[in-house]
């Protein structure tokens, strides 16, 4: 009986394993294989080169994925059906907007959020006539190409699906689907970031939130501020030059990904003291725990006019490296004692007659004005003031309407942030922090555990409700969400396996919308893991392979 | 002031960063560099080829490690001292036992535990005269070569130490220092195992406990039982052929590592049902949770004479593949309901008039007798009987005196196991399980957490006391300990970063003995991470690099 059930499963290897799940999908039960001369044909006037490149990569993956179906017989039972299956000669990639201007993927990827069109339709007939991918944008076509690439399995060199015809109509539930990488606590070479961008694009993540510098190191080389990376990078090769940044930003954009850089201020800036000691309060002050949440201590002298000006110039110069709409000025974890103990800050406050909160407000306004003058909108963390209340909730810092707030401390703060009227991104530590659960990392603390224990499983993030306790009006402020990798205990060594496939779980939540079923999602997510591996990304196993090949059989209730 | 302190740290980059810490070490403060033509000279009569190979690898690492000192200036402040430093022309590797027979490392590595001599002395003079490594065994020489390789840093192509002269006298506190890898839940290619063996040897781990098969897959090809791997491997290439096993075992032995294979019985054997269904009770019975701790269910019909004979033959055949002294028959997680529901087992019990416990005893005796006839001593897990008591504690299974018991369920069971009089290995889930803390993996269980939460940090294992609550006599039964990687959620993708450097922490605990100080150990452990990376093992970061380069500055109290 069990053997027969397995055979059935082998013949019908679950629903088409697309990730993220499209808005609408209809599939049949007909076998279809790619013709030997299968081609992807562009029917796009003046097709931009990044679209041509995307097509070329998609064709490559169709050959190199060579992913055997994740069922017990790895597809052998389909061999008969494949012999008589029709061959798909081509996929036509069609720009559908009449009189629409054809822009490059790269241009569309960095257009203002909310204005991007990521939707597409995909039709894969069972009768041997060409498949058609249509969209009103090259960005939509790019998303659709990723979907097309997930349809196919390999059996003995034949690339096939058993579920033709396929009709898909798809667009994202949320315009922001991100991944944050911290390249300051530990450095990641450009190649690691590019590999991550590729992986992100495969699951339709459209934003890299790049927490590029922090107190520990300053790897970003900023024109006019080269001293910062010269003195602040871990070593001369642990630097992102303007050329590297351009390379990364271009690579991302060509893959439908916008890059939001972050220069966290006024806290998290200790390393600036190596180049501009006059701007940093409590630089490397000890004991660090009295002056910062983690070593080394050091914060911009936010009450100083000179430091405020320096910061504005720095942000503006950095903003020039990035073509996207958003730039994050951080704002988290401001330590009150650092400023209380800093004579200059105290004297600056006295001289100006400002309270600390007013000084923070002025500093933030100046920073954001500088970004605005560079054409950017600001992003901030929901911020701890020195009194440990939330900046956006009840302190006097005034954030412009277009400011986006990232909720990180707790998902319980979402409602309050939404009440402030700002657009928000879900990035809460209790759901989306991929680094949690790996123990304490500070020294001389044998019993230390992770502050954000436990480990965030893919299931936990997957069942998150982005609009819990929000009114409809508040819900409209939710741009989307992201998973995050802080790097105190991360490095290129564990990057792939720590991020994947968990970041894909969050990607589906915000593309397909909430309400997904972890039980049904699991086998599709296994396919993400196995397909990523075929493409050179070392995604980790979620279960024994025995379970992978027997969808449902390792469910708690099976 | 802080700058000056940093300079001082740069000049004296902490104690010599050896891992594991030697029994006795004296160091000076003189700079010494390797001569351009530096050589390692063997003064060993009829030097075995594995020793020659080890010397060759050691020489290679001296060139390719190229590890800059883990201090802020990466050793730049030593440049002056290096200019006038003496050059070390050579290391003489000397077999010191008078009239002693020179055996190969490989022979010595698999000699009965307790009879191996892993000690050595190492002298590195500061005056430019040759260094000398002495031991009474090639195994000791091999251990010493690893130590010698950890002495050196690189600065601009100069390989140097600042702490000559160096006198080391070293031997292990415990004869068993292991690492367990589960290659059944997910498969690891031979190359991953070899890379792991290399890494193990660098920190003087001397045992690979190879949990090679389990209920999920049977990758071990056993002569006479080829059907098991043919039907039970995940795919035809996910098989360890006898040639692969020989390759792995030889590779290990040449690196001073004994391999203890495990065929877990009578539980954890579901996969055998694909080839010998007559021997397996409750094969893939559902719901699995009623029949096993994890899917799929299936246990050897331990009350059947035929199955007992089959098992004995299987074990004996498998034992023939492995040259070492020990072979594990497992014995954990026997599910009572599986046997209660199995008509054949019930009728076998009736026919024999045996209680279940008596049948388990007979089965175990027969298995162990088969191993004994193959020249092996048995290893078992502390075992749950169907009544959830410990086999070795209060059930009637009689274990021969030479049986080694691995404590896994809890470190709290150590005392009771010791009271049974058996030699034991520390392998407790609450200290040494490297896979814990990554959430639940069974399907349809969004809130599932790891059963052995939390994640086991290196610090937690490091401060374990191997003889807590033991009398001196009981303490003498402690062979050592090991860290373990179960593979429900592990795979080649996360192998290196999950295992390293945490397994090194346990390696030092059992080589250097307990009482180590996590505060002092951290900077040495960072060096393990960075040196491993230079050698191609992707060990994970324990801290931001800022902390790595400033020993102590990220301590909780700093």
Automatic annotation (TrEMBL), chains A, B:
<protein>
    <recommendedName>
        <fullName>Beta-hexosaminidase</fullName>
        <ecNumber>3.2.1.52</ecNumber>
    </recommendedName>
</protein>
<feature type="domain" description="Beta-hexosaminidase eukaryotic type N-terminal">
    <location>
        <begin position="18"/>
        <end position="151"/>
    </location>
</feature>
<dbReference type="InterPro" id="IPR025705">
    <property type="entry name" value="Beta_hexosaminidase_sua/sub"/>
</dbReference>
<keyword id="KW-0325">Glycoprotein</keyword>
<dbReference type="InterPro" id="IPR017853">
    <property type="entry name" value="GH"/>
</dbReference>
<dbReference type="GO" id="GO:0016020">
    <property type="term" value="C:membrane"/>
</dbReference>
<feature type="active site" description="Proton donor">
    <location>
        <position position="333"/>
    </location>
</feature>
<feature type="domain" description="Glycoside hydrolase family 20 catalytic">
    <location>
        <begin position="174"/>
        <end position="513"/>
    </location>
</feature>
<dbReference type="InterPro" id="IPR029018">
    <property type="entry name" value="Hex-like_dom2"/>
</dbReference>
<dbReference type="GO" id="GO:0030203">
    <property type="term" value="P:glycosaminoglycan metabolic process"/>
</dbReference>
<keyword id="KW-0326">Glycosidase</keyword>
<dbReference type="GO" id="GO:0004563">
    <property type="term" value="F:beta-N-acetylhexosaminidase activity"/>
</dbReference>
<comment type="similarity">
    <text>Belongs to the glycosyl hydrolase 20 family.</text>
</comment>
<feature type="signal peptide">
    <location>
        <begin position="1"/>
        <end position="17"/>
    </location>
</feature>
<dbReference type="Pfam" id="PF14845">
    <property type="entry name" value="Glycohydro_20b2"/>
</dbReference>
<dbReference type="GO" id="GO:0005975">
    <property type="term" value="P:carbohydrate metabolic process"/>
</dbReference>
<keyword id="KW-0378">Hydrolase</keyword>
<dbReference type="InterPro" id="IPR015883">
    <property type="entry name" value="Glyco_hydro_20_cat"/>
</dbReference>
<dbReference type="InterPro" id="IPR029019">
    <property type="entry name" value="HEX_eukaryotic_N"/>
</dbReference>
<keyword id="KW-0732">Signal</keyword>
<dbReference type="Pfam" id="PF00728">
    <property type="entry name" value="Glyco_hydro_20"/>
</dbReference>
């Amino acid at each position: 009986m069990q053997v027969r059930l397995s055979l059935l499963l082998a013949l019908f290897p679950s629903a088409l394993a697309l990730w993220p799940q499209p808005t609408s999908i209809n599939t049949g039960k007909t076998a279809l294989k790619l013709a030997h001369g299968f081609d992807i044909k562009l029917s796009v006037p003046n097709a931009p080169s990044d679209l041509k490149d995307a097509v070329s990569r998609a064709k490559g993956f169709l050959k190199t994925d060579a992913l055997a179906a994740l069922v017990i017989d790895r597809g052998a039972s389909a061999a008969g059906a494949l012999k008589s299956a029709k061959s798909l000669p081509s996929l036509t990639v069609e720009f559908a907007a009449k009189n629409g201007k054809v822009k490059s993927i790269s241009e569309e990827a960095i257009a203002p959020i909310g204005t991007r069109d990521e939707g597409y339709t995909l039709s894969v007939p069972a009768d041997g006539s060409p498949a058609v991918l249509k969209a009103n944008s090259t960005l939509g076509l790019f998303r659709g190409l990723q979907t097309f690439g997930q349809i196919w399995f390999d059996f003995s060199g034949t690339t096939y699906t058993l579920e033709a015809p396929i009709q898909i109509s798809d667009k994202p539930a949320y315009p922001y689907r991100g991944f944050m990488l911290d390249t300051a606590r530990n450095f990641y070479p450009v190649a690691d970031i590019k590999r991550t961008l590729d992986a992100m694009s495969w699951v339709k993540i459209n934003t890299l939130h790049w927490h590029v510098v922090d107190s520990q190191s300053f790897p970003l080389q900023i024109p006019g501020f080269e001293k910062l990376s010269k003195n602040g990078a871990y070593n001369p090769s642990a630097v992102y030059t303007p050329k590297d940044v351009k390379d990364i930003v271009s690579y991302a954009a060509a893959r439908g990904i916008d890059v939001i850089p972050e220069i966290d201020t006024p806290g998290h800036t200790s390393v600036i003291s190596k180049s501009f000691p006059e701007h940093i309060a409590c630089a490397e002050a000890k004991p660090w725990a009295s002056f910062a949440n983690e070593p080394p201590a050091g914060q911009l002298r936010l009450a100083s006019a000179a430091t405020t000006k320096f910061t504005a110039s720095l942000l503006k110069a950095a903003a020039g490296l990035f073509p996207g709409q958003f730039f994050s000025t951080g704002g988290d974890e401001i330590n009150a004692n650092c400023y209380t103990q800093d004579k200059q800050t105290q004297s600056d406050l006295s001289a100006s007659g400002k309270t600390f909160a007013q000084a923070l407000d002025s500093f933030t306004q100046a920073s954001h004005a500088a970004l605005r003058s560079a054409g950017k909108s600001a992003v901030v963390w929901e911020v701890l003031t020195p009194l440990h209340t939330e900046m956006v909730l009840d302190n006097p810092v005034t954030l412009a309407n277009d400011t986006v707030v990232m909720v990180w401390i707790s998902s319980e703060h979402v409602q309050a942030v939404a009440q402030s009227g700002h657009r928000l991104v879900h990035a809460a530590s209790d759901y989306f922090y991929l680094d949690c659960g790996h123990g304490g990392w500070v020294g001389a603390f044998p019993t230390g555990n992770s502050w954000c224990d436990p480990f965030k499983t893919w299931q936990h993030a997957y069942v998150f409700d982005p609009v819990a306790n929000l009114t409809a009006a508040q819900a409209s402020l939710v741009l989307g969400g992201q998973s995050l990798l802080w790097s105190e205990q991360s490095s290129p060594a564990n990057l792939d396996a720590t991020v994947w496939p968990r970041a894909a779980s969050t990607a589906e939540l915000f593309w397909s919308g909430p309400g997904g079923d972890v039980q049904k999602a699991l086998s599709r997510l296994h396919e993400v893991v196995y397909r990523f591996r075929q493409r050179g990304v070392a995604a980790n196993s979620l279960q024994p392979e025995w379970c992978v090949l027997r969808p449902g059989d390792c469910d708690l209730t099976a």
